[in-house]
């Protein structure tokens, strides 16, 4: 069948799933006084619409930073402003200063959900489609299946359309950046990625690979000549983009510093809400929080993060191929956080989307022989974990996740360990993360798999 | 096929899991669960605490009774008759799960139908085989999805019986087919519309075991045994279903519940049939008459047809239509089809065509037709569409029109993206898949048909987007519904005529390009 029809069917299905999820409850629904992320986004619309720009990030009488103060970079604020203008035309009550706190209504929910869908349609979905069609190898069918799996990825759908966030925008921009780099348009790629960074500071996870790849590429082209020219072009693009985004705040350095303070709240601890990372898991064994002071925690975590990504970045510097770049990007995997979804009453959509995604990816990708053993370099992986054969490993991990999901829902944790299940979930997730991390390191450091990928080298 | 089944299951689960909105049909079925569970059998058809009285045949009531025993484990409170509009989360969960579960029968029936479809020889990959296309067209049918899983009914379950019965006839297992159809009739009596097709076909092709050389009936080959077998099957099923009520002498009461002719010619939203056109013509003539001073405005009956209420009403200018008139029209419309399979039987596929025509005929001319009834024609037509090129063209017109006419069923803004996306999904698939199936022999649609279908997009935009934002929204709120009805009825009537042409055309005559 023609590609366009298959792709449009995938996109339509993606839209149906997204909108279906969005009909469920959102973060903090009906839970005063603080509500949740949904109320945070609505509050930002209120703040950006009613207050002058300089006051958006500062603690004033009109703007109480303790009640969901802005803590994302300026592009998010501008996006909220645009949404606020639309909201004002539909129903001014939604963005009334102070009076609209905790505003909840079916029409408002529809509006907020619609803003997420519109943002996705404009930024994320086109990036996915173009990326899969132009930058993946294989037959048309394989590409369409990749689009399908990408669009149905449950984590993003549940967080954006269930919990309520705009991750699609920042991920979309980052993906446009990857797309541009893959096509050789380095300046545009850096522009897109800067936009992503200015939307959510979490994209810093991806910043190192971008930086190392572009730096490595410039070095390869020769620092006296084309390489230098490229470097200058990229640097100026980055500087101009940042300047444009931060322009209103640059008139007063105090404002800019306040924004930075809000974006990087180092006053908070190492981990919030039992997030799935190393620190949470390590905390089980050693009570880190009580041993180290807050400052040293920050330094150690920074150091460890840097150490963890250093090997791949060095490799990328030395061998700046697009394929290596993609592998390095995989570091920023989003992990599904079950307890968070439970809090928002999203259990059923979580179960359904995860099952569906799992099923589809297994069926589609294996049916297309995407995962042949050589390509995946699982031989090397086996040598590390020689005790467990490949298939069992996969099914063990799936059953572990399924079992944990069931247990978290069905059973009540013992009273002396009230957070047992969330911690178990994040530890399991971290183990998975660690496993894939090691695996991808192995892949990156072994030879490129086939001549097909060599074509991607620039 | 296994893949498709699981796809469908996942879809149903999605739609169920992600839909918390429920409709009046939901309350209807909850009420029936309560009635059958809490009350003795003698009270089932007399009970009217709720306005949604039991108006399906007794076998469906037994089915609801069975479901209610499972419902007890989810939320016993839903089984109290007094709990009108009770909709706790467990109730919703149970009801949705029951639809998904009973859909298993539909999946099985679809599989049987796919097995009857002749696959052409040649190395086609899976996605292009007629049986695969049919599977997708049946399992992912937009109309069925929104009526069953978003709106709420058990149509998947019932269509499972219909399709299974058709499949059995295609496989020449006529007794099983007859059994399944009698069960279906006793589950929902709307299928009486297609009973003439069954009756005549079975009589002609099953009871008369042989034909003469020229195709006419060979009276000497009549087999009373077969007739007795058929009669016995039908009678026993009906006895199982109606028996207790006949024994209690409640048959008239049951029948009055089953056939409530007090309802009006058209539903609140006019189904896209001939009477929609008739009503519109009447309205236009009335308005013109008043404008041209030919009629007195005071003498006209109040305009309640378009008020959205289900009442009896009179036409202003044209003669009023009574139930008997619609019955006569329906019978006249299906007579040629039925006669055709008597005098020129064309095997099981001829029977299928006749079934389609009976369903469509009764849709076009019937009394108080609901627009969901178009599915009775669309689903069996899918079988013909993957085998025959001309039928594929008719299928595209009828399906797109019929599915669009279901749009007013989902009228909240929250449902708009879903219904538009699902409709586009199904339409794109059906067009591209069927085009691929019959590639290389020109376009499936005639130019006029393409223009008509494109016009649907315009109508959709006008009704969903432009009209609600325009100043006429207050004065003429029924206008989008009217426009949808009228526009779709053109397509439906056109498809009816084309299907008739394909049935009555003598075999061997080449079709017009």
Overall helicity of chain B: 55-70%
Treating each run of at least 4 consecutive H or I residues as one helix, how many helices of chain B?
20
Shape of chain B: globular
Work out the helicity level of chain A. Answer: over 70%
Tell me the number of helical segments of chain A per DSSP (H or I, 4 or more residues long).
Answer: 22
Shape of chain A: globular
Low-confidence stretches of chain A: 269-281, 331-348, 362-390, 449-458
Gyration radius over CA of chain B: 23 Å
Order of helices and strands of chain A: HHHHHHHHHHHHHHHHHHHHHH
Q: What does the largest sheet of chain A look like?
A: none
Distance between the termini of chain A: 33 Å
| Strand-residue proportion of chain A | under 5%
Main interface by residue count = A-B, 26 and 25 residues
- What sequence of helices (H) and strands (E) makes up the elements of chain B? HHHHHHHHHHHHHHHHHHHH
Quick overview of this protein structure:
The complex is a heterodimer of chains A (458) and B (513). With 458 residues, chain A is mainly α. Chain A contains 22 helices and no strands.
Describe it.
Chain A: This is Alpha-1,3-glucosyltransferase. Chain A: Keywords: Endoplasmic reticulum, Glycosyltransferase, Membrane, Signal, Transferase, Transmembrane, Transmembrane helix. Chain A: It comes from Sander lucioperca (Pike-perch). The complex is a heterodimer of chains A (about 450) and B (about 525). Chain A is an all-alpha fold. Chain A is built from 22 helices and no strands. Chain A has helices at about 5-20, 35-50, 75-90, 105-135, 140-150, 155-165, 165-180, 185-200, 205-220, 225-250, 255-265, 280-285, 290, 295-320, 320-330, 340-345, 345-365, 375, 380-385, 390-410, 420-445, 450-455. In chain A, α6 packs antiparallel against α17, α8 (about 185-200) runs antiparallel to α9 (about 205-220) and α9 (about 205-220) runs parallel beside α14. Chain A is globular and about 60 Å long. The two termini of chain A are about 35 Å apart. Chain B is about 65% helix and about 0% strand. Chain B starts with a helix and ends in a 9-residue tail after the last helix. Chain B has helices at about 1-20, 25-40, 60-70, 90-115, 130-140, 140-150, 155-170, 175-185, 195-205, 225-245, 250-260, 275-290, 325-345, 345-365, 375-385, 390-405, 415-435, 445-465, 470-475, 480-505. With about 525 residues, chain B is an all-alpha fold. Chain B has 20 helices and no strands. At the A-B interface, α1, α4 and α17 of A face α1 and α17 of B.
């Amino acid at each position: 069948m023609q590609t366009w029809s298959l792709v449009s069917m995938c996109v339509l299905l993606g839209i149906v799933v997204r909108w279906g999820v969005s009909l469920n409850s959102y973060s903090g629904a009906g839970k005063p006084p603080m509500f949740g992320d949904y109320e945070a986004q609505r509050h930002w619309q209120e703040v950006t619409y009613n207050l002058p720009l300089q006051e958006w990030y500062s603690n004033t009488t009109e703007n109480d930073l303790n009640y969901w103060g802005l803590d994302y970079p300026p592009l998010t604020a501008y996006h909220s402003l645009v949404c606020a203008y639309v909201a004002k035309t539909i129903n001014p009550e939604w963005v009334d200063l102070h009076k609209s706190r905790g505003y909840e209504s079916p029409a408002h929910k529809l509006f907020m959900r619609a803003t997420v869908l519109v943002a996705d349609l404009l930024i994320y979905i086109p990036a996915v489609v173009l990326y899969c069609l132009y930058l993946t190898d294989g037959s048309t069918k394989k590409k369409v299946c990749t689009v399908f799996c990408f669009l149905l990825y449950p984590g993003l759908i549940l967080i954006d359309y269930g919990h309520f966030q705009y991750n699609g925008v920042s991920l979309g921009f980052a993906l446009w950046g990857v797309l541009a780099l893959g096509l050789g348009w380095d300046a545009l790629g850096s522009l897109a990625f800067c936009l992503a960074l200015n939307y959510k500071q979490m994209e810093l996870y991806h910043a190192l690979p971008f930086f190392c790849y572009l730096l490595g590429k410039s070095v390869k082209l020769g620092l006296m000549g084309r390489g230098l020219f490229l470097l200058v072009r990229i640097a100026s693009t980055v500087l101009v983009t940042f300047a444009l985004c931060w322009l209103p705040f640059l008139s007063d350095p105090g404002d800019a510093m306040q924004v930075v303070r809000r974006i990087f709240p180092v006053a908070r601890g190492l981990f919030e809400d039992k997030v799935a990372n190393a620190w949470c898991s390590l905390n089980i064994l050693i009570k880190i929080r009580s041993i180290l002071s807050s400052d040293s925690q920050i330094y150690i975590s920074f150091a460890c993060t840097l150490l963890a990504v250093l090997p791949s970045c060095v490799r990328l510097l030395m061998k700046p191929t697009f394929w290596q770049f993609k592998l390095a990007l995989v570091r920023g995997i989003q992990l599904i956080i079950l307890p968070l979804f439970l809090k928002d009453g999203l259990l059923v959509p979580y179960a359904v989307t995860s099952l569906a995604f799992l099923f589809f990816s297994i069926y589609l990708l294996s049916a297309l022989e995407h995962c042949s053993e050589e390509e995946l370099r699982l031989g090397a992986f086996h040598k590390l974990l020689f005790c467990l054969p490949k298939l069992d490993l996969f099914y063990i991990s799936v059953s572990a996740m399924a079992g944990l999901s069931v247990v978290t829902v069905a059973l009540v944790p013992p009273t002396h360990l009230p957070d047992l299940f969330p911690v178990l979930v994040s530890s399991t997730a971290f183990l998975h993360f660690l496993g894939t991390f090691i695996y991808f390191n192995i892949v990156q450091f072994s030879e490129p798999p086939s001549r097909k990928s060599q074509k991607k080298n620039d | 096929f296994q893949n498709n089944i699981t796809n469908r299951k996942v879809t149903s689960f999605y739609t169920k899991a992600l839909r918390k909105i429920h409709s009046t049909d939901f309350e209807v079925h909850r009420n029936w669960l309560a009635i059958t569970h809490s009350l003795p059998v003698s009270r089932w058809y007399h009970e009217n605490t709720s306005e949604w009285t039991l108006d399906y045949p007794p076998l469906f009531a037994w089915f609801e009774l069975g479901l209610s025993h499972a419902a007890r484990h989810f939320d016993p409170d839903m089984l109290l008759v007094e709990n009108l509009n009770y909709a706790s989360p467990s109730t919703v969960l149970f009801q949705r799960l029951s639809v998904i579960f009973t859909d298993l029968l539909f999946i099985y029936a679809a599989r049987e139908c796919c097995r009857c479809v002749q696959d052409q020889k040649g190395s086609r990959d899976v996605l292009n085989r007629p049986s695969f296309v049919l599977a997708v067209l049946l399992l992912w049918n937009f109309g069925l999805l929104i009526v069953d899983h978003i709106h709420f009914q058990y149509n998947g379950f019932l269509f499972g019986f219909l399709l299974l019965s058709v499949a059995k006839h295609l496989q020449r297992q006529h007794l099983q087919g007859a059994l399944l159809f009698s069960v279906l009739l006793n589950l929902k009596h709307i299928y009486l519309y297609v009973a003439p097709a069954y009756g005549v076909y079975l009589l002609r092709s099953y009871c008369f075991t042989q034909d003469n050389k020229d195709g006419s009936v060979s009276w000497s080959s009549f087999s009373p045994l077969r007739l007795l077998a058929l009669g016995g099957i039908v009678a026993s099923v009906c006895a199982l279903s109606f028996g207790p009520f006949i024994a209690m002498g409640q048959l008239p009461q049951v029948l009055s519940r089953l056939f409530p002719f007090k309802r009006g010619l058209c539903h609140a939203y006019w189904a896209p049939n001939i009477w929609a056109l008739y009503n519109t013509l009447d309205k236009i003539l009335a308005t013109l008459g008043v404008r041209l001073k030919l009629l007195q405005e005071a003498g006209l009956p109040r305009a309640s047809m378009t008020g959205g209420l289900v009442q009896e009403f009179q036409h202003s200018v044209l003669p009023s239509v009574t139930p008997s008139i619609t019955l006569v029209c329906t019978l006249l419309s299906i007579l040629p089809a039925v006669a055709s399979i008597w005098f020129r039987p064309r095997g099981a596929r001829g029977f299928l065509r006749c079934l389609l025509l009976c369903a469509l005929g009764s849709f076009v001319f019937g009394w108080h037709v609901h627009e969901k009834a178009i599915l009775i024609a669309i689903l069996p037509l899918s079988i013909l569409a993957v085998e025959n090129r001309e039928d594929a063209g008719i299928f595209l017109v009828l399906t797109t029109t019929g599915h669009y006419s279901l749009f007013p069923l989902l009228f909240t803004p929250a449902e708009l993206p879903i219904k538009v996306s699902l409709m586009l999904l199904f339409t794109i698939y059906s067009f591209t898949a069927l085009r691929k199936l019959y590639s290389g022999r020109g376009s499936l649609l005639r130019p006029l048909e393409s223009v008509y279908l494109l016009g649907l997009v315009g109508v959709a935009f006008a009704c969903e987007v432009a009209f609600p934002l325009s100043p006429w929204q207050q004065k003429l709120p029924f206008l989008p519904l009217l426009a949808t009805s009228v526009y779709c009825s053109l397509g439906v009537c056109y498809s009816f005529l084309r299907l008739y042409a394909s049935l009555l055309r003598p075999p061997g005559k080449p079709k017009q390009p």
